Amino acid sequence: MDAILVINAGSSSLKFQVFPADSSREAKYLLKGQIDGVGTRPRLRAQAADKTILVDTVYDVAQVSDLPAATREVANWLRGTQTVELVGAGHRVVHGGPDYSQPVWITKEVLEKLERYVSLAPLHQPNNLAPIRSLFARRQDLPQVACFDTAFHRQHGALADHYAIPAHYYDEGVRRYGFHGLSYEYIVQRLHQIAPDVAEGRIIVAHLGSGASMCAIADGRSIESTLGFTALDGLPMGTRPGQLDPGVVLYLIGEKRMTVNSVQDFLYKECGLKGLSGASNDVRELEVSANPSAAFALEYFVYRAGLYAGMLAAALGGLDAFVFTAGIGENSASIRQRIAAKLAWLGVELNGDIDPTTSPLISSTDSRVAVYVIPTNEELMIAQHTLQLLHDKEEKYIRAS
């Protein structure tokens, strides 16, 4: 069977899904899995669409020491055990910079451009590009597609995209990009399916995970985001601080004599919930902790989410719906309730008796704002974009013939 491989690479893990190449917009994966603990305790797990376990293998560290090695092991396992013929691969790439506002075929020239943005997403971009290079080396004939987290936000107006700095920096690419776009794009698509009456309204989507952001969407289009030039802005995250006065960075460099690299490591790896709690970046651990610092970290997260929701509601000129998604948004009832309480002034009221696994609409009948919990699916969006480009390429070939 012809199939496409979807890859979503993180810092120490590689998630993958395989879709049939004739899939429609309702595409269902054939199998999905991940290899995590890369460089420490590598473990490959995968399951079929019917939940049948296909593999659960632990490797020596030397076998899977980095993401290219992880890509190689996944490819070897697929080739050796699955009756699929890969005809394309789609990749999540966090930063597309000013050059890319939609998915593109990956060439060496495209890859060189994307490498320029490593400093703007140091936790993500190098890891996103590693599997691409690995597949280039092993399968030069395999078409590869890059799908960008920034693309969904590229339709922002000039007011939303500019910083108040000299204009030539904007021309050089210093602008507010926004991220988590594949997730937001999927949520818009799902809203059209489950709530078409609100899908074209004024919506705030809260993508709350280890990386967290919120997006204001009107008529299905992003108009404002809490994230900007890099993935450091906006909401506090697992290990990133969120909104920060630039003077703090100047203080760290001038008074603490920190180097640029040490400041970068500090901001990306030591702040956020981890920094505030002094213990963990995992909301699940913080919620059960008796440590007052853990409680403060969560309260800070909720407080900032409430502030940004107000900002985004102002950008929208009102609010019709609010959507929780991603790991925290989908799984933490406590965080949802606490954020909803901050939004009571907007008319948000939850129905505590509704289980979001059985009904995505969790607001009460009296709530002036519809509230949903919708699991995100970035891999499906990547699959759809990859399939569309393959289809367009085939149609172009047929017309040329």
Number of domains: 2
Please mark out the parts with pLDDT under 50 across 5 or more consecutive residues, or reply none. Answer: none
Q: Widest sheet: strand order?
A: 5-4-3-2-1-6-8-7
Here the CATH topology of the largest domain equals: Nucleotidyltransferase, domain 5
CATH architecture of the largest domain: 2-Layer Sandwich
Average per-residue pLDDT, rounded, comes to 92
CATH superfamily caption of the largest domain: ATPase, nucleotide binding domain
What is the H/E order? EEEEEHEEHHEHHHHEEEHHHHHEHHEH
Strand fraction: 15-25%
**What is the count of helical runs?**
15
What is the helical fraction, as a range of percent? 25-40%
CATH class of the largest domain: Alpha Beta
How many strand elements? 13
> Gyration radius, to the nearest Å?
21 Å
Largest sheet: 8 strands, mixed
Termini separation: 25 Å
Structural class: alpha/beta
Shape: globular
Would you mind describing this structure in some detail?
The chain is an alpha/beta fold. The protein folds into two domains: 147 residues, 2-Layer Sandwich (Nucleotidyltransferase, domain 5); 198 residues, ATPase, nucleotide binding domain (Nucleotidyltransferase, domain 5), CATH 3.30.420. It is 40% helix and 19% strand. Helix 1 packs across helix 3. It starts with a strand and ends with a helix.
Distinctive features:
401 residues, alpha/beta, Nucleotidyltransferase, domain 5, 2 domains, eight-stranded mixed β-sheet, five-stranded mixed β-sheet, 15 helices, 19% strand
